[in-house]
Amino acid sequence: MAAAMGRKLIDSLKSKEFREYLMSTHFWGPVANWGIPIAALADIKKDPKIISGTMTTALCLYSMIFIRFAWKVNPRNLLLFGCHITNFTAQSVQCGRFVNYTYLGGNTKQPEGPSDAIAPAEEKKK
User: Fold this and answer.
1) Do residues 37 and 60 touch, judged by C-beta distance below 8 A?
2) Does residue 28 surpass a pLDDT of 90?
3) Could you tell me the pTM of the whole model?
4) In three state form, how does the secondary structure of 27-55 look?
5) CB atoms near residue 29 (< 10 Å)
6) How far apart are CA 36 and CA 72, in angstroms?
7) Taking the CB of residue 122, how many other CB atoms lie within 10 A of it?
8) Three-state DSSP class for residue 77
9) Are 67 and 88 in contact (CB under 8 A)?
10) Within 13 Å, how many C-alpha atoms sit on residue 53's CB side?
């Protein structure tokens, strides 16, 4: 059973239709687009003061448009759809971080970490 399924997979990968798909913009366009959500996911751990609210909003709108396009185009481009769903999600997280930092007082909060543990000991010495 597994051998038959493996053979069928190999045969479909060798098919003319699959080779044509790999050489089409229906494949390479979304592959090139994956750089945007990967960069957004990598930036989630970075300091929120570097986030551009304008660019994040533009990328959210851009992804919403292409989510719909990828679903409506015939044949459906699920690779593009997945790329833009991921990008919209990552950009929404970034937008939330931007709003929190800029408008909800996130920039005035004390940094957390080892420096908080050291501060009380320094006050006792004074």
Assistant:
1) no
2) no
3) 0.70
4) HHHHHHHCHHHHHHHHHCCCCHHHCCHHH
5) 15
6) 22
7) 9
8) coil
9) yes
10) 9
Is the C-alpha dihedral spanning 40, 44, 50, 54 positive or negative?
A: positive
Phi-psi category of residue 113: left, alpha or beta, with phi > 0 → left and psi -120 to 50 → alpha: left
Cis peptide before 75, with omega less than 30 degrees from 0?
yes
Q: What is the pLDDT of residues 2-14, one digit of tens each?
A: 788 888 878 777 7
The number of beta carbons lying within 10 Å of the beta carbon of residue 81 is 18
CA distances from 90 to 51, 83, 107 (A): 12, 11, 21
Task: Name the token pair of 68.
Answer: 């719909």
- Quick one: angle between helices 78-103 and 35-43, nearest 10? 30
Q: Looking up tokens 């960069």, which residue turns up?
A: 39
